[in-house]
Amino acid sequence: MTEFSNNPYYDLFSKQSLNQFAIGNRSYKERLNTLNKLQKAIEVTYRTQIQEALQKDLGKPVVETELTEIYAIIGDLKYTKKHLHQWMRKQNVETPLSLLGSSSYITYEPKGVCLIISPWNFPFNLTFGPLISAIAAGNTAIIKPSEMTPNSADLMAKIVSDIFAEDEVAVLQGDVEVSTQLLKLPFNHIFFTGSPKVGKIVMEAASKHLASVTLELGGKSPTIVDKTANIDKAAKKIMWAKFLNCGQICVSPDYVLIDDSVKAEFITSCKKWLQTFYNDQAKSSDSYGKIVTDKHFERLSAYLDNAKSLQATIEVGGQTDSASKYIEPTIISDLKPEAIVLEEEIFGPILPIVTYKSLDMAITYINSKPRPLALYIYSKSKSNTNKILNSTRAGGTCINNSVLHYANHNLPFGGVNNSGIGKSHGFYGFKAFSNERAVMKQHTFGVTELLFPPYTNMKEKLAR
Ligand code: NAD
């Protein structure tokens, strides 16, 4: 009997635990083989089913699925496969003179049994992304996908059971009850993607066993548009980034901070681009999705009601339809500071516009809130851009674009404090799932012989 015997998932956990060294000691070629199997499943075998599942769960247009889920995962797999051999190599490091006679290196060894808890907004990308890093680094993994996108969760369970034995990778479906039980087990690493609120619960649970964590969280990502920016281009890119996946993206521009003098021009351009993107008919557009659940639809509708009750100006949109969980792309301005859309992460297709009279005011506003996952700067001024970069902190930044820093595997992805702990993607993801083991090897006689007593006068002199 152990303290975990009554845990419904302990049996599975134990199987993975017993198997971890066999998996961890697999060669580069064997790991590559596993990654190839996953690639074939996503790229060929299940491609159409992934599109269908996302259509059912999120009304996701096929092109969006291809770009933000399938292409993203395949890109990640290709990048990982290209670099894995180098990442797995032991890394020799210099040895100081004081340790003469020895050599030192770092090995990236697997952490062991890992837990991956994922959200619903990009169910495949945000589940298989961390899984790619986990298996590249030689770990076993239990995955708990979000219950909010059940068709996607079912399909991921099928894909995983096609490729892996359960003592290597397994999917457990369910809601908070399942997560809560899983979080009681002594995982070696927990990779959580979701809200800051649940991130705190995960971190607290991890602390019981001192499991390491990667927390990929969310928050309010600001977008600054200064008066030197190309306003029309900024509006186009912001409209795309904001209303992609109906704003249900962790790095979505949460709100726009704009120089007062260019606000009217910006809103005119936004209207133009929205009309171009969705032909003024977002509801029937094949390029626009829906809100994931009734609960989230109600949450977002309440944000709109709250803004209206505070006499905000609805610049664009504002229409909703509960039956189809539709919320029109909406832009709001003239908001009072207490408006909920200025306080909580929106995670939906509502864009508040806040004006500023000086860049310092914009910076002060950003720094009055928790540190964001992303911060976007639209500006032609180098000094303004540098001033913003030097006076704020954020997980990542795009200059004169939004969201796309996520797509560069050479960059670490993750937040800072409230928006996350640790980084993912590419080598940074591999590192998150690896223990950097420090190894020092003593060869023949070395200076370290001087460490041993008796401490003669000569040794004392040498030590000084
Ligand atoms: P969430 O935190 O509600 O849920 C995420 C996962 O945690 C789900 O699998 C859910 O079942 C589980 N969960 C929920 N409550 C739990 C609890 N009390 N204990 C343990 N597990 C629990 O988040 P969500 O609604 O799925 O996703 C939206 C949030 O995720 C937003 O804040 C968004 O910014 C963030 N997010 C971050 C990233 C990133 O990469 N940084 C990516 C996508 C989403």
Task: Describe the 3D structure.
42% of the residues lie in helices and 18% in strands. It is α/β, with parallel strands linked by helices and 464 residues long. The model has no long low-confidence stretch (mean pLDDT 96). Residues 117-121, 126, 144, 146-147, 175-176, 179-180, 193-195, 198, 201, 216-218, 250, 345, 347, 373, 415, 420 line the site of nicotinamide-adenine-dinucleotide.
Summarize the structure.
Helices cover 42% and strands 18% of the residues. The protein has helices spanning 10-24, 28-45, 47-58, 62-88, 125-136, 150-163, 176-182, 196-209, 231-243, 263-278, 294-309, 359-367, 382-391, 426-432, 457-463, and strands at 91-93, 102-110, 113-117, 140-144, 169-171, 189-193, 212-216, 222-225, 255-259, 313-316, 320-321, 326-327, 330-333, 350-356, 374-378, 396-399, 420-421, 434-442.
Q: Features of this protein?
A:
seven-stranded mixed beta sheet; single chain; alpha/beta; binds nicotinamide-adenine-dinucleotide; 15 helices; 464 residues; globular
* CA distance, first residue to last residue: 55 Å
Q: Say which molecules are bound, naming each kind only once.
A: nicotinamide-adenine-dinucleotide
Report the mean per-residue pLDDT as an integer. 96
Largest sheet entry:
7 strands, mixed
Biggest sheet, spatial arrangement of strands = 10-13-14-9-8-15-16
Radius of gyration, in angstroms, nearest whole number = 25 Å
- Report helical residue fraction: 40-55%
The structure class reads: alpha/beta
